[in-house]
Amino acid sequence: MRSESTIFLMKIMTIFLSISLCTAFVFVIYFQDANKSKDDISMEILQDNSGNMTLSEVKVSDQFVALPGNYSKVGYSPVRLWFKIKLNRYNADEINYLTINNPLFEDVTIYLPTSNDYEIKHFGFAYKSNSDEIGYVYPAFKIPPHFDHNQYIYMTSKSLYGQNFIVQIVNDDLFRKTSMINVLAGGILFGVLAALFFYHLIMGLAIKNKTFIKYCFFVFATLLWNAATTGLLNITGFKYAYWIADYSAGIGILMSLAIAIFMRAIFQTQTRFPKIDFCLKLLIVYFPINLLLFLFVSKELGAFSAGASSVVYVLYFMIMFKGIRYKIIRSPQLITAWLLCIVSIILFYLMVFGLLPQSYIMIYYLFFLSCVSAIAFALSLAEIINDLNEEKQRNQILFENSEIQARQFELAFIRAQMDPHFVHNTLNVIEGVIAENKEKAGSLVNDLSHYLRNIFDYSNSERYISIHEELDAVKFYVRIEQARFPDKIFVNYEIDPGIQLKVPRMVIQPLVENAIKHGIRKRKIAGTVTIRVKELEQGYFIAVEDDGVGIEDADKYKLLEYSPNKGIGLASINARLKAEYGTQLQIVSEKGKGTAVRFDVPIKEQP
């Protein structure tokens, strides 16, 4: 049989291989897309160090440098850039669109040559609703009919996220087809994240688990970030799509905060990784401050959060490395989420720093990785629920075992309180009766035997017994008392015929004992005890009544209070009834006329 460590290593290798193959497949498609129009379009780049060059100056400049083809891999540039684009192949008989595969441009101006002059197009989130681009996931422009494809297209751009993009000329059919694919793919991915958010929000509120709420915060921030970086909101016509893109750096800060908070919860860093937890706490304080500065002081401050966000992922790597090494983290779901996160971060920074041209394929792959990572975390949370359920079951078993022991101790305690004088006096009565009536003496011995068996049968710890078993114990006791005090005690049984009721063991017999001992025997003449068991619409009514000496009003309330040397008192029975049914004893008494002790048994509480 394979060891647990070998099985765990095989799981990690399988996950790693699956992610690698998926990424390799995406890269094949990505490079095919990037090179699809490579021969159709050529580009050159110029750095505008002054930032004030005009189109006329740019056109005559000899400082342009050729790019590999139809794509730019320039990361963030502190100076303004100009691009010179030449269409090597163009079909003027079709409707054509110029697309720029980067939805996070801040400020771009494109000069489309016409037969007379240049047609100027502006786009980027700096223009908000005044952008000239068509509603599309990334910037796109319809080529005007009088476009002169023999001249150069000029473009000047600015972006905090790097000026890496792919330029393509697509016809109307391909444009519409690509639009539908983008909407379909984006809608599915957004739907997955939205479903995860609402499901775990409801679940977290239902089970009152903070980790689920923190997960929802993480999913919500991820959803916002992908809405900003994919440009999907542009195609929906959402009014504030450009606003979201404009504040994408702030959304990135919010997402970093959400990741830090969720990491502390899901990995229990406070107990498992205290040093890393301290760093996460500092970041959780830093990010909100940085976000406020970004929103109300300067958007340029958003760049400072990039370094802090990188620290979050470094800490994430350290947690997983230590967790796997020291066998603290053994969940394949968490490891999957971690590896997906590593892949997405590497790809994102490769695009930001200009090592990869930005393409909608890569953007959607990053979105896909976010969704799968969120699903992996969700499966990990499902493990938490399973662990909680298993712990609940274990606790339930422990509770039931302790409850059985408690009942055994309770019955032992009740039985141990039996008055030893009762046995002694009963034996004396039997001794006296033997000489006069051996048959009666034998009957008394039989009653005492059954009575003692009921009292001292410690092996029988059932929580409930039938009302008839309890009344049998009462009858054994009553016959013994009647033998001890001839013609003194009379008992009436008013029991509804065919009644099916279970009651806690020794809950009626002590009431009868109290009625005889403290009610009947204290009066000079004979007395009667009446035991009533009635079935009602809402349950059962049980009462033990006597016509004995009665109780003073001031003493009735003291009977339900615990006090030493009381034996099986009313207080003990009352406490048991409260625990079992939520009801309690009712004592009705009048001095010199008798006492009635009553209680109800609800039907819904029947075992």
TrEMBL record:
Domain Histidine kinase: from-to ranges: 507-605
Transferase in keyword set: yes
Gene3D superfamilies: 2.60.40.2380, Histidine kinase-like ATPase, C-terminal domain (3.30.565.10)
Chain ranges passing through the membrane: 12-31, 180-203, 215-235, 247-266, 278-297, 303-321, 333-356, 362-385
Catalytic activity: ATP + protein L-histidine = ADP + protein N-phospho-L-histidine
Domain of life: Bacteria
EC number(s) recorded for this UniProt protein: 2.7.13.3
Matches recorded under SMART domains: HATPase_c
Entry keywords, A to Z: ATP-binding, Kinase, Membrane, Nucleotide-binding, Transferase, Transmembrane, Transmembrane helix, Two-component regulatory system
Pfam families with a match to the protein in the record: 7TMR-DISM_7TM (PF07695), 7TMR-DISMED2 (PF07696), HATPase_c (PF02518), His_kinase (PF06580)
Protein name, as recorded: histidine kinase
The species this protein was found in: Cohnella silvisoli
Organismal lineage: Bacteria, Bacillati, Bacillota, Bacilli, Bacillales
